[in-house]
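Can't paste images in this forum, so I'm doing it all in text. The chain is below; anyone willing to post the predicted structure tokens underneath?
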Amino acid sequence: MTGSAGLSPDLLLQGYASGVFPMSEGRDTDEVFWVDPRQRGIFPLDRFRISRSLRKTILKTPFRITRNQAFAQVVEGCADRDDTWINKTIFDLYSDLHHLGFAHSIEIWEERDLVGGVYGVTLNAAFFGESMFSRRTDASKIALAYLVTGLRSDGFELFDTQFLTDHLASLGAIEIPRHDYRKRLAEAMAGSASFGATPLPTAQEVVQLRTQTS
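Text version of the structure:
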């Protein structure tokens, strides 16, 4: 598809529910296309890994953590790189989804500066992770740790990461074939969860996630 013609928040949600997601070639193009990977990255919500060093950092609480307080700024932070798939069409669509209650963010602050964050889309009991960014050491890892803790508390069943990267794999993400993903997606679509239904977790609650020995 080209530009935003025919692409609406409702169609976007239909795409997620059927197992596809949108991307663009870059910030300077209007073209948006659907992606349906043969191998899909997911975070098993009971297998998130927090290293001992990350655990110490979280417990020191060097940052302030918020939820849905700066969604547009998080998306802008994710797009602030040389190579990005977030163009104006995608930015506007996800802003609309946020205002409709389907797109959410976790923000990491150092005093008044936004130094990290992650955002994604929720539908029934599935969270579709879109992107994250970090301007301080471990900021994106901390955002993910708070996100996963919250998703578990709120009753989510699926955390889709779209693709598997070395960074995500080091935190417990895995790759599964498309048919397996579609099965898990169908189960999540039959479930129900509400992002932010429980209070933002404390540092102690976050580090109670599975901790690796490194």
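The radius of gyration is 16 Å. The first strand starts at residue 21 and ends at 23.
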